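Hey, I'm writing a tutorial for new members on how sequence and structure tokens pair up, and I'd like a real worked example in the thread rather than a made-up one. If someone can provide the structure for the chain below, I'll link this post from the tutorial.
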Amino acid sequence: MLEIDMRNAVDISSKTTNFHVLLIRLMRKADMGNYARLKSVFPNTARVLEHWIETEEILEGVSYE
């Protein structure tokens, strides 16, 4: 589930490097154009990240794309 990867992605001390953790970190650094491209391919990941940015809460129960 994405919430585990989101927890690892926002924890700067985490050494986890699986695909979705790296994707979330990349999305956080992306400019608007590249973020839009990533969001079109990974909408669930973008939804979890956007919710976290707005509320600092991690959505639970969201599956991978």
